[in-house]
Every structure is written in C-alpha cells, then in structure tokens.
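Let us practice reading a record.
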Amino acid sequence: MSVKTLLDYRSLKAMYESEKTNASIPTPFTDTFFTNPTSEETDDFTMIVDSVEQRPAPLNNKGGKARVLDKSGASERRGVLFNSFNVMPFGAELIDAIREPDSPTIDRKATREVRRQLSKFAFRHVIQKEVVISKIITDGIVYYDVATGVIKEASGDSDSIPIDFGVSANHKGTLNGLVSGYISTASFELHELIEDIKEQAEAENVSSPTEIWCHSSMKQYIRALTEFQTYATASFNVSEQLLRGEYVENLFGMNWHFLSGRYQDSAGNNIPTMDPKKLIFTPPVNEGWVQASNGKILVPTTLNLYDDAMAALAGVSEQYGEYAYATVSHNPVGIEAYAGDCYGLNFTQPNAIWQATVLA
C-alpha cells in the first residue's frame, strides 16, 4: 500500500481502529458497557425512557365490554457526548513518500511512521474512553478541566466543570444508611446489604441488581468475612476456589465482576480505574438502563486542496464515533493526521445503579 493510499481517511480510520484493538491495555468498562451504540446527530440529544409497569390489568365480567386501559407514558432524559480530537504531525519522510510513490524504501519508512504515531494516539484515546466510562459507572459524575481537557478525579479549581449523570445521592456512598460499617471488618453483613438494595430497588420501581462490579483487591476482604467462611464451608469449597478468576457467578445471589487496570491521573499518579473502595450494583447491562452512543463528526475525505467552498463541502464525509483523517499543512509544509472519538454513555434509569462505598 502506498503512503498516499494509506492517508485516505478510510485507510487511516481502519488502521486507527486496528491499533486501538491491539492495545495491550485492559478496558473492562468500555468492553462491557459501550455496546450496541446508537448514532446521534447532535452532542445534546433526547433519550426516551419507558418506565417499569407495576399495575395489574383489571378483571372483567364474562360477556362484558372490554375495559379501556390508559396508555402508559414515557419520559425524556437528556444525553451528552464526549469529544476527543487530537493532531499528529508527521515527519518529512511522509512528504517524500508521496512525492516519490515508486520508492518502496521510502514507502516502508513512512508507513512505519504512520503506524508509530497512530499507535501512541490510539492508546491514549483507549485510556481516555475507559477512564470516562469508569467515572460514569463508579461515581455518576465526570469532572472535566475546560482549559486543559484533562479528566479530573474531583472538582478542585475554577476551570473544572462537573458532568452529572443523574444518580441520586441516596444511591452513592452509604446508600442512605444501607451500608453499615466497612467490608474490611469480618462481621460486615454483605448478604444483608445485597438483600436491602434489592428490596429498595423494588420500592423505587427500578430494575433489580444482579451484578456487582469491584476492584480485584476486594477478594481479600470477601474471603475474610465470617459469613463468607460459613458459605464456603457449606459449599464444600475453600474460599480461594470460590473466588477464582475475574468473574464469579451466583455468589450471595449475585454475579461478581473483579476488574483491574490502571491509568495516570491528572496529578501524575498511577491509580486503579476501578475505585478499590466501592461495590457497584447494577442490573444486567442488556436490560436497557444504560445507553451507549456515537456522535456525528464531519471529516475531509482527501488530501487535495480545493478550488472553491462548494468543492470543499463535497469533500466532507459524516462519521460516527471513532475517526481519523489527514490534511496538508502549510507553515511549514507537512502532513498532519487527526484522530478522535465522539461518544457517550448515559443512564436511562440512573437509579438502577448503586455506587456503594464499603472501605474507608
């Protein structure tokens, strides 16, 4: 493949997506929650929420007229999208490769340069998306520094703005008193907490949780619980066997997902993507309480310079989600490749998630 062909937006996007797929970075949040995304035309869009119906249909007398049932209403929620957009300046060998299309040596060298640059930017975009989605799932809020574009761990300065996803305060921290004590204490009543959350979900008319998401280090605290030791003995298994792997099915009636992965935060610290202090309770992901979305981006389709504005408009294509393209720069002459993403993860039922803090 020649470099000129490689810099076509379709080739660049395919290579960019390939580099993201090959990234040796664990992305459990993205892999699990960012599935079957919708395509949205604007950054601020409306989601239709169909509430859970709890009313029984009325009885009737045999031979009587059919009773008229009132229509079930739906509500609206606003959705938001995140945008990443970054530029990659290429070296002079890329210009030489385009000017000398019959030189295999130059072509190979330039192709390696494209892949090297794309892989670095692809990795950073992979991490960014994973961090954003993890903040939504574990905190229900994302802090974003407008001046630098950096994702913050908490609000700390005037340039940081919160993007709140509507999870109630009663569904965070101690869950309005449902969490009593810390899981680091052997007497912590985990099974009671699970049952209390399920009962409260029923009272709030939201989907009942079946999944628990937590950091891999949470296993050591679960193994030390008195009620877990009793459970392990009754199951004729040692505790280590019951907590093997990243997924444990039907432990205390829940499916457990133990997550790993780290990133460098805004202060330069290497921290876990999954908050080690929390247990996150959710319904199955496919039950519709959360919605992934891709936003629309306009990208140029060729490296050509255009004679007029209409020709330039004709050379623009609509893309959804991840994208990559290249343009000619003039000061100095060179080629710049751009890559980014436009995506969102929004709750259609924000109170179907429970973000419990169980460690100090």
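A brief commentary: The chain has ten helices and 19 strands.
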